[in-house]
Amino acid sequence: MQYVNGFDCDGVLTIGIRPTCYDIIITGRSYEEEKETYKWLNKHNIINKVYFNNKIFNDKTRESSGQHKANIINFLLENKVKIINFFEDDEIQAKIIEKECPWVNVIRILHDLTNKENVRRDDNGKEI
Question: What's the mean pLDDT when you consider all of the chain?
Fold first, then answer.
């Protein structure tokens, strides 16, 4: 079993909280946002594995993003990768992860620096 931490992108990585090289990013961002997300990550020297939401941008919600994260955490556990701590700033998503993955210590990052709703960002992380 491999033990790692998990990180949300918007509101966690984008405010300066950083993973080690072994940790995993599980974002609610749609696979359609992959290009600008990788540009931003590369610009900030973050080279971790990223799991994107499989919903199209217009169909994802805070709830579906939380369920996506819980599904990935469970998938990883089935594949011998156990998320110990997950850094999350969205209260709705944090509650879903806690319910679906009770072994995970969800570390809530409380702030009002980023929008919790579905918004597009450029490769600098700015809302567009």
Answer: 92
Model pTM score? 0.88
Taking only the tens place, the pLDDT of each residue in 11-64 is 999 889 999 999 999 999 999 999 999 999 999 999 999 999 999 999 999 999
pLDDT at 116 over 80: no
Buried/exposed code over 105-115 (b: 16+ C-beta within 10 A; e: otherwise): ebbebeeeebe
Q: Is the dihedral of CA 51, 57, 60, 61 positive or negative?
A: positive
Q: Which two tokens stand for residue 76?
A: 């990883």
CB 46 within 8 A of CB 123: no
The conformation of residue 10, written as its DSSP 8-state character, comes to T
Q: Is residue 126 part of a domain?
A: no
Beta-ladder partners of 85: 105
| C-alpha to C-alpha distance for 62 and 105, rounded to whole angstroms | 20
What distance, in Å, lies between the first and last C-alpha atoms of the chain? Answer: 41
In a domain, 40, yes or no: yes
Q: Is residue 118 in some structural domain? A: no
Cβ-contact 12, 88 below 8 angstroms: yes
